[in-house]
Amino acid sequence: MSSLLFASFDVSRQAFYRARLAAAIVNLKPLVPGHVLVIPTRVVPRLADLKHDELSELMISVQHVARVIERVYGADGLTIACQDGKASGQTVPHVHFHLLPRKLQGDFFARNDDVYPALEVSEGGLPDALHQVHQPLQVDADEDRKPRTLEDMEKEASWLKAFFDAEVEASKEKEA
After folding, report:
1. Which of 29, 93, 104, 153 could form a disulfide with 76 if both were Cys (CB 3.0 to 4.6 A apart)?
2. Which ranges of 20-112 would DSSP assign to H, the alpha helix?
3. Catalytic positions, written as ranges
4. Cα–Cα dist 151/125, whole Å
């Protein structure tokens, strides 16, 4: 399979879902279990820079990945966010949607909107963390979230990919 870039960083091994123009990757330092990113396969800094077919497939992929993530992580809903441009808190110059599983009871965030400042802090340290992906991962200063190794991210990606592979097989069986 061809390599997948997130800005200038190769995230091929973190990918668990791929469509022609979009992909989903596990997060370097997730805010909650199941926090993943959906990205266009072409490196594009802003949402407005996407071609219509890329935008369409990106949003279809967000919807598809969201359904699976919600089911797999036993969530009651999802926070889906895109920081578009530096002023919004985007630090990696590649369009990406955060998908975070959320629960009605026992959610990580006591107040629903607390997720947004957490996303902003998380996004701020990402460029430095991505530069160090080939070493044991060094991540931003948020000590509450533990750094993940490339092996840990690969393991999660492989686990999630199995759910998408099972869907493809079920579709083929229906058609036969």
Report:
1. 104
2. 52-72
3. 96
4. 21
